[in-house]
Write a structure and sequence with these properties.
Elements: H1 4-7, E1 15-23, E2 27-34, E3 39-43, H2 52-59, H3 69-74, H4 81-94, H5 100-135
Antiparallel strand pairs: 1-2, 2-3
C-alpha cells in the first residue's frame, strides 16, 4: 500500500514493490508500481504491506455503516492497521457487529492481553533470576 503523501490520492493505493534501495543519506527508499503502471518512490515508512489474502478477506466485509472494511483500515493511521485487521477478523469470528465501537474495543482487548502476557513473562523471568541468585 502506498501512502497518500506520495500519490496525492485521498486514501492509500495498492501497489507492488519493485525495488528497495539502501540510501546512505535517508535509509531505505522503496519504489512501487500501481496497477495502472504509475511508479512511486519514497521513504520506507510511506509504504505498508497487507498480505493479499487478508486484503481480499477485508474487502469482502462490510461495516454496519456500509463502509468496506478494507477502506476502513486504510483510513486509519498505518500503525493501527495490523491490530485493527486482527480486531475485525475476531469480531467476525465471534459474530459481533462490525462497527467502530466493537472494533476499537476488540483491538484494545487484544493489545491488553498481549501486554499482560509480556509482563507476566518478564515477572516470571525476574523471579527465576532472583531465585537462582539466592540459591547460589
Amino acid at each position: 500500500m502506498i501512502s497518500p503523501d506520495v500519490t496525492f490520492e485521498d486514501t492509500w493505493v495498492k501497489g507492488t514493490v519493485i525495488k528497495i534501495e539502501d540510501n546512505s543519506f535517508v535509509g531505505k527508499v522503496v519504489s512501487a508500481q500501481t496497477d495502472d503502471g504509475d511508479v512511486f518512490f519514497s521513504y520506507e515508512d510511506c509504504f505498508v504491506s497487507i498480505s493479499g489474502a487478508k486484503e481480499e478477506q477485508l474487502a469482502k466485509q462490510q461495516l454496519c455503516s456500509g463502509e468496506n472494511a478494507l477502506i476502513y483500515i486504510k483510513n486509519l493511521p498505518k500503525q493501527h492497521w495490523k491490530i485493527a485487521t486482527e480486531a475485525i477478523f475476531e469480531c467476525v469470528r465471534l459474530g459481533y457487529p462490525l462497527n467502530d465501537m466493537e472494533i476499537t474495543g476488540k483491538a484494545r482487548e487484544i493489545t491488553r492481553k498481549r501486554t499482560e502476557t509480556i509482563l507476566g513473562r518478564c515477572k516470571l523471568w525476574i523471579q527465576r533470576l532472583f531465585s537462582a541468585e539466592s540459591t547460589s
